[in-house]
UniProtKB/TrEMBL annotation:
This is Unconventional myosin-Ia. Keywords: Actin-binding, ATP-binding, Calmodulin-binding, Motor protein, Myosin, Nucleotide-binding, Repeat. It holds the Pfam family Myosin_head. Belongs to the TRAFAC class myosin-kinesin ATPase superfamily. Myosin family. It comes from the Eukaryota. SUPFAM superfamilies: P-loop containing nucleoside triphosphate hydrolases. Residues 890-1073 form the TH1 domain. GO terms for biological process: actin filament organization; actin filament-based movement; endocytosis; sensory perception of sound. It comes from Lepidothrix coronata. The keyword Nucleotide-binding applies. GO terms for molecular function: actin filament binding; ATP binding; calmodulin binding; microfilament motor activity.
Length: 1074
């Protein structure tokens, strides 16, 4: 022990080694008092006792981790972090492999303790991406193993139903590299049956509650737990536990560990198979021979199981309802009865789940194991069942208690070994300690020739009728005189009457107390047989994971050798575990359950007393106190108690050992109470230590009083010096302030005198300047009047007669100049469409203003015309000509304004059909278009091609492109059109022309405006004469048979296709236009 300060408390010592007097009652009272104070951890030397509070306490925060990190084990309050830190530092700094043994009964908090140890080591070890990944994988293995290996029992809602030993491997820097997990004795019988009020393994409830509808459908499961025979034996819901959330956490943990989605799916499929096996019901029938046989009552469940694992339903049904027996060279197929069938079904379910759990542990090891070849240190954490004493104890309790006997044996031996090594190292004489050696009990159970397990294996392998009665008889014969074994038969032989020991039971006197075991089921559970037919059926499945769990099912590897028994396997596992633990430095955590109701902070003395006994805590304290109860290094001891001697206080100049010897000599303790080792002081009795502590507290009170006196004196002196310093400072500031005020007053007076003097001088100068300015002003006024007088006299003589005309002309010129300059600055935009003009500022400039507006607009138009290309100018000239001919005269004109004049509407150059016609025209083509010629006789129209050249007007057949009529421009006398929006026109020809004898032409054109405009321009350019244009609704035409009167009428009957011409007799024609 390095520092006993946190451990010394007369009412509730933190280290039970210092308990005085040491009795079972005082130990129990100490634990109860500490539990009442919420101190759930207590030491026995370097052993930690943990009492489950059944509630969360604020003692596991990151701040607590830092508090216990790198601290001295006994320098702080007892805590599980202290033992974890001590083990970790011993591993890292002293290169010693460590193991932490966590024991206690179900519900005592072993699983939580192992989690706290792992989380602390993860928190204090180095950081880094790869290191964090390893730590996360190690921590995330807990949710996965808890889901598949934990269950709710009557004593614990999250009870581990398997033993777990994890080796965490570190490199030389103390960084975790990985680990290996070993599991022991999974309680697979819980698969098929459990006590009322308990639950099956968590994974079944988590899968049904947290699995998605799609997943459950894929696994062919229902969400109702009551539907399944393996789950409806007890309660399904658990207050305070969210199965759905735990299922999601388990899936996340698998991802972190490295499970692939295919592996997770295969794992859940096998889990679903186990669950559904419980719903396979058998019915009884009789064969022709009269022998009873069984068959599947409802094949649906069997069918769904076979679909999940890829197996023929007939194969599985045959394996469940019959058995193949090989005798010599013959193979006989025998049918099973219903009880035998149910036994085979349950055995299959248990074997599948047990092997699946082993596969799960191996798969986790694959992810977290360390690469071979790396040098590493190991810290093992053992979380295994505590000693169990129930009302009815069976094979499982026998195996568990055997394991605890071995752990107690290693605990006693390792503790005594450590004590003896420390005594030898310090040069203190070792006194042999008397203690109960439980090796006789271990030998009773595990002796390879005459132990209980050996007898059980022998009975299981013996041919003939074998049952528990023959096994018990053999035990009674073999251990009749053994003082730690008794049964009803041995008691009768010793003439002992004990009604508490029933028949078919035997009792073993364990180190923790007497336990009575009922031998019912020992043979069956030790054999743990699975019919070969079922193994072969599982191997025949196409499900890769399930098939790998049953390698013995391969027909090519059939072996008639019986598999090892459950007892033999567990004994071998315990032997390997003990060998592993002996190679490491042990650290112990003993967990205690304070009450059976799982109530927060409730302490039941009788229940705790029983656990104190079978955990051997009193024995542990006695071993630790053998010889000397307290030891401490000389340095910390002298530092703590040096104030008790005037020769060592306040400081000691010699060595620490000499100072401790001087100190204890002055205190006059008996020599037999003390022993001086090489580095430590040893004190035999706790009373001596408590007397030391009492004297120290009294001396500390005296020293505190002295320190308070000195502090008060120092405080008063300091206060006085501060006040004196303040008074000097205030006086200095006051005198300085008075001198400043006096200086300011003197300066103010001087400034006032200076101001008055300067004012007097300034006023005198001002008076002189004003007098001078008045004289100058008077002289200026006189001179101005004189010059004015002379000017007026000259004006009257020369300018007075023509002054008004001169002034008027001057003013007029100024106004005109201002007007022109302003107009130049405000000219409108140069767009020809913009007719805006600024208003005239003066009325007398109105005519000039309008003239300038006209000039400016004409100038804009000329500038615009000069910029136009020749084609655009010709087109605009045509538009202007059309405007002069038709504007406000014909309705069709307004529609043609926006349409450009294209001239060629036939595409003469592009169309090869019309190229010949173009060639025949010889002169330049002005316009080419399609028109309709009105028949003079019937009024009907026929299409014609119209070509207007510089000298002719040609009408051609559109089909043959051959000219029908060729008119010279000089033959055209005039043109008549209507005032409506139609395209009707009449070409009046001269009578003396070559074609004039045929009469006038009536045409309909879709481009009337352009046609007449082009004709007008061409005629004017060729002959120099303008075209005579008549715009009227009634006109006369000349035909060969005489003149005809044409009347144009606007009518809705005329459609959009064009005018309708109707003959009204021989000399009248009516044209209907739209």
């Amino acid at each position: 022990m390095e520092d006993a300060a946190p451990l010394l408390d007369a009412e509730a010592v933190a280290d039970l080694v210092l308990l005085d007097p040491l009795t079972e009652e005082s130990l129990l009272q100490t634990l109860q008092e500490r539990f009442r104070r919420s101190d759930i951890y207590t030491y026995i030397g370097n052993v930690v006792i943990s009492v489950n509070p059944y509630q969360s306490l604020p003692i596991y925060t990151p701040e607590k981790v830092q508090e216990y990190h790198e601290c001295n084990f006994f320098a702080v309050k007892p805590h599980i972090y202290a033992i974890a830190d001590d083990a970790y530092r011993s591993l890292r700094d002293r290169d010693r492999d460590q193991c932490i043994l966590i024991t206690g009964e179900s519900g005592a908090g072993k699983t939580e303790a192992s989690k706290l140890v792992m989380s602390y080591v993860a928190a204090v070890s180095s950081k880094g991406e790869e290191v964090n990944k390893v730590k996360e994988q190690l921590l995330q293995s807990n949710p996965v193993l808890e889901a598949f290996g934990n269950a709710k029992t009557a004593r614990n809602d999250n009870s581990s139903r398997f033993g777990k030993y994890m080796d965490v491997e570190f490199d030389f820097k103390g960084e975790p590299l990985g680990g290996v997990i070993s599991n022991y004795l999974l309680e697979k019988s819980r698969i098929v049956r459990h006590v009322k009020g308990e639950r099956n393994f968590h994974i079944f409830y988590q899968l049904l509650a947290g699995g998605s509808a799609q997943l459950l459908q894929q696994l062919k499961l229902r969400q109702d737990c009551g539907h399944y025979g393996y789950l409806n034996q007890g309660t399904s819901s658990l207050p305070g536990m969210d199965d759905a959330a735990n299922f999601r956490a388990m899936q996340d943990a698998m991802k972190v560990i490295g499970f692939s989605p295919a592996e997770v799916t295969a794992l859940l499929e096998v889990t679903a198979v186990v669950l559904k096996l419980g719903n396979v019901q058998l019915s009884s029938s009789f064969q022709a021979s009269g022998m009873e046989a069984c068959s599947i009552a409802e094949p649906r469940e069997l069918q769904e199981i076979c679909e999940l694992i890829g197996l023929d339903p007939g194969t599985l049904e045959q394996a469940l309802c019959s058995r193949t027996v090989k005798a010599r060279n013959e193979t006989v197929l025998t049918t099973l009865t219903v009880p035998q069938g149910y036994y085979g079904r349950d055995a299959l379910a248990k074997n599948i789940y047990s092997r699946l759990f082993d596969w799960l542990v191996n798969r986790i090891n694959t992810s977290i194991q360390v690469k071979s070849g790396e040098q590493r240190k190991v810290m093992g954490v053992l979380d295994i069942y505590g000693f169990e004493i129930f009302q009815d104890n069976g094979f499982e309790q026998f195996i568990i208690n055997y394991c605890n006997e071995k752990l107690q044996q290693i605990f006693i031996l390792m503790t005594l070994k450590e004590e003896q090594e420390e005594y030898v190292r310090e040069g203190i004489q070792w006194t042999p300690v008397e203690f109960f050696d439980n090796s006789i009990i271990c030998n009773l159970i595990e002796n390879s020739t005459s132990g209980i397990l050996a007898m059980l294996d022998e009975e299981c392998l013996r041919p003939g009728v074998v049952n528990e009665d023959t096994f018990l008889t053999k035990l009674n014969q073999l251990f009749a005189t053994h003082k730690h074994y008794e049964s009803k038969e041995t008691q009768n032989a010793r003439r002992v009457m004990d009604t508490s020991l029933p028949a078919r039971c035997f009792r073993i006197h364990h180190y923790a107390g007497k336990v009575t075991y009922n031998v019912t089921g020992f043979i069956e559970k030790n054999n743990d047989l699975l019919f070969r037919d079922l193994s072969q059926a599982m191997w025949a499945a196409r499900h890769a994971l399930l098939r790998s769990l049953f390698p013995e099912g391969d027909p090519q590897k059939v072996s008639l050798k019986l598999p090892p028994t459950a007892g033999f396997q567990f004994k071998s596992s315990v032997a390997m575990l003990m060998k592993n633990l002996y190679s490491k430095n042990p650290n112990y955590i003993r967990c205690i359950k304070p009450n059976d109701t799982k109530s927060a902070m409730v302490f039941t003395p009788e229940l705790v007393r029983a656990q104190v006994r079978y955990l051997g805590l009193l024995e542990n304290v006695r071993v630790r106190r053998a010889g000397y109860a307290f030891r401490q290094l000389y340095g910390p001891f002298l530092q703590r108690y040096k104030m008790l001697s005037p020769r060592t206080w306040p400081r000691w100049a010699g060595s620490d050992r000499e100072g401790a010897e001087v100190l204890l000599a002055d205190l006059a303790y008996p020599k037999e109470e003390l022993a001086f080792g090489h580095t430590k002081i040893f004190i035999r009795s706790p009373r001596t230590l408590f007397d030391l502590e009492r004297r120290r507290q009294e001396r500390v009170a005296q020293l505190v009083t002295l320190i308070q006196k000195m502090v008060r004196g120092w405080r008063c002196r300091t206060q006085y010096q501060l006040m004196r310093k303040s008074q000097i400072l205030i006086s200095a500031w006051f005198r300085g302030h008075a001198q400043k005020n006096r200086y300011k007053q003197t300066k103010r007076s001087a400034l006032i005198l200076q101001a008055y003097a300067r004012g007097w001088k300034s006023r005198r100068l001002l008076r002189e300047l004003k007098s001078q300015r008045r004289r100058c002003a008077a002289a200026t006024t006189i001179a101005a009047h004189w010059r004015g007088y002379q000017a007026r006299r000259t004006y009257r003589r020369y300018f007075r007669t023509s002054a008004s005309t001169f002034l008027a002309n001057f003013i007029y010129r100024r106004l005109v100049c201002r007007y022109l300059v302003g107009l130049a600055k405000n000219l409108p935009p140069l767009s020809v469409l913009d007719r805006t003009w600024p208003p005239a500022p003066y009325k007398f400039l109105g005519d000039a203003h309008q003239e300038l507006k006209s000039i400016f607009y004409r100038w804009k138009c000329k500038k615009y015309r000069d910029q136009l290309p020749p084609s655009r100018r010709a087109q605009l000239q045509a538009k202007l000509c059309a405007s002069e001919l038709f504007k406000d005269k014909k309705t069709l004109y307004s529609k043609s304004v926006q349409q450009p004049f294209r001239s060629d509407y036939l595409g003469l150059k592009q169309n090869p059909k019309y190229q010949k016609l173009h060639t025949m025209a010889k002169d330049k083509v002005v316009m080419a278009d399609t028109v309709r010629k009105v028949n003079r006789a019937s009024g009907k129209t026929v299409p014609r091609l119209l070509l207007l050249t510089t000298e002719h007007l040609v009408l051609a057949d559109p089909k043959t492109a051959q000219p029908k009529t060729v008119l010279g421009l000089g033959d055209i006398r005039s043109v008549s059109v209507t005032r409506f929006s139609d395209g009707f026109l009449v070409l009046h020809l001269k009578e003396v022309s070559t074609v004039g004898a045929k009469g006038d032409f009536l045409l309909v054109s879709d481009h009337l405006i352009e046609l007449v405009t082009r004709l007008h321009q061409t005629l004017e350019a060729t002959t120099g004469q303008a075209l005579t244009l008549h715009i009227t609704d009634k006109f006369s035409t000349r035909f060969p048979k005489g003149d005809m009167s044409v009347t144009v009428v606007e009518s809705p009957k005329a459609g959009p296709d064009g005018p309708i011409c109707k003959k009204k007799g021989s000399h009248k024609m009516e044209v209907l236009v739209h």
